[in-house]
């Protein structure tokens, strides 16, 4: 049985193929360069959707000896490929629009083009909202990125429809290449954003939203023996997460007790990311006298200093590689 993610992206691919055909039909009816720009971007939807299908298939393969962290990082290649294709499409659109600026060109059957583009916009709106919502629930950057790209297509189609209606009632054909230039610039911007997201993922750039979520989960269920958490690092592989951190525990705690505490941390965070697999590598640090003033284990038999107050866990004290008292 195909994975849910694969079936979703396959649906996106099939819909994008049909909508691309409809947009080229609108272009041949109207000879509008702005509609051609929209159709060229839709070709990118099809190509990127095909690559996304393969990346999701590969990301779903189990870990092996050559890929101990799994194959999930291929999703960053997928979104990078899609971003590069969008960027190229934007450049082609700007070149084509520049050619049309050199001379007037007649438009035909503009309102038929409006109705066709309007129909594709509504279908893309439903598909884009669905992909973004499902992609976030599944923690799939490929599905989410594909949905965001399609939503960009929706906004550009809306602007295109408005321009075509104005052209139809005013005869201002010079607006056609102008709208194409605007669409090309917006597409270039979106392509850059997707390339930036791909590079940051491949370079293991920290996702602060994920860090904040982990800190929030641990803070909400904070145990008195968890004196502090520090040196936290988060990596994402597809919809899986690898988290490293150090936790300071009472130095006299037995190994079996320390293991139970670390296991409790793993279970808490894993439950906080439903639908994802969370792998924890936790290093247990022994407490030192400088920890006593913020240690909440009030009945500690070896306390050196009085408890002066709880230190809230934030990015500022969880990410650095040092105990809070140092």
Q: Can you give a write-up of this model?
A:
- It contains nine helices and three strands, in the order αααααααββαβα.
- The protein is mostly helical and 326 residues long.
- It has two domains: 4-202, Cation efflux protein transmembrane domain (Alpha-lytic protease prodomain-like, Up-down Bundle), CATH 1.20.1510; 208-318, Cation efflux protein, cytoplasmic domain (Alpha-Beta Plaits, 2-Layer Sandwich), CATH 3.30.70.
- It is elongated, with a radius of gyration of 26 Å.
Portion in beta strands: 5-15%
Name the shape in a single word: elongated
Query: Could you name the CATH class of the largest domain?
Result: Mainly Alpha
Structural class: mainly alpha
The radius of gyration over CA amounts to: 26 Å
Question: What is the third-level CATH name, the topology of the largest domain?
Answer: Alpha-lytic protease prodomain-like
CATH architecture of the largest domain: Up-down Bundle
The number of domains: 2
The largest β sheet comes out as: 3 strands, mixed
The tally of helices reads 9
Compute the separation of the termini in Å: 53 Å
- In N-to-C order, the SSE pattern is HHHHHHHEEHEH
The average pLDDT is: 81
CATH superfamily of the largest domain: Cation efflux protein transmembrane domain
Percentage of residues assigned to helices: 55-70%
Pfam families: Cation_efflux (PF01545), ZT_dimer (PF16916)
Keywords: Membrane, Transmembrane, Transmembrane helix, Transport
GO biological process, one term: intracellular zinc ion homeostasis
Domain Cation efflux protein transmembrane: 9-203
């Amino acid at each position: 049985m195909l994975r849910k993610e694969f079936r979703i992206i396959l649906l996106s691919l099939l819909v994008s193929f049909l909508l691309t055909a409809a947009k080229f039909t609108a272009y041949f009816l109207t000879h509008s360069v702005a509609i051609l720009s929209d159709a060229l971007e839709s070709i990118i939807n099809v190509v990127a959707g095909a690559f996304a299908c393969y990346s999701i298939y590969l990301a779903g393969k189990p870990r092996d000896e050559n890929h101990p962290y799994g194959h999930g990082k291929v999703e960053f290649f997928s979104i990078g490929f899609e971003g590069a294709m969008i960027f190229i499409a934007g450049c082609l659109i700007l070149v084509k629009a520049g050619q049309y600026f050199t001379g007037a060109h007649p438009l035909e059957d503009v309102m038929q083009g409006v109705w066709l583009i309007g129909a594709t916009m509504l279908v893309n709106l439903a598909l884009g909202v669905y992909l973004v919502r499902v992609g976030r629930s599944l923690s799939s950057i490929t599905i989410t990125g594909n949905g965001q790209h399609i939503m960009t297509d929706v906004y550009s189609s809306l602007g295109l429809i408005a321009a075509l209606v104005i052209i139809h009632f005013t005869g201002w054909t010079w607006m056609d290449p102008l709208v194409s230039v605007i669409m090309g610039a917006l597409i270039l911007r979106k392509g850059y954003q997707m390339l930036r997201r791909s590079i940051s993922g491949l370079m293991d750039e920290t996702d602060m939203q994920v860090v904040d979520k982990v800190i929030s989960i641990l803070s909400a269920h904070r145990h008195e023996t968890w004196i502090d958490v520090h040196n936290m690092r988060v990596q994402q592989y597809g919809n899986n997460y690898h988290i490293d951190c150090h936790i300071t525990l009472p130095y006299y705690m037995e190994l079996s007790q320390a293991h139970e505490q670390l296991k409790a941390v793993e279970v808490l965070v894993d439950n906080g990311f439903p639908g994802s697999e969370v792998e924890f590598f936790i290093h247990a640090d022994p407490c030192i006298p400088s920890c006593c003033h913020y240690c909440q284990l009030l009945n500690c038999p070896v306390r050196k200093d009085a408890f002066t107050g709880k230190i809230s866990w934030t990015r500022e004290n969880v990410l650095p590689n040092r105990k809070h008292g140092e």
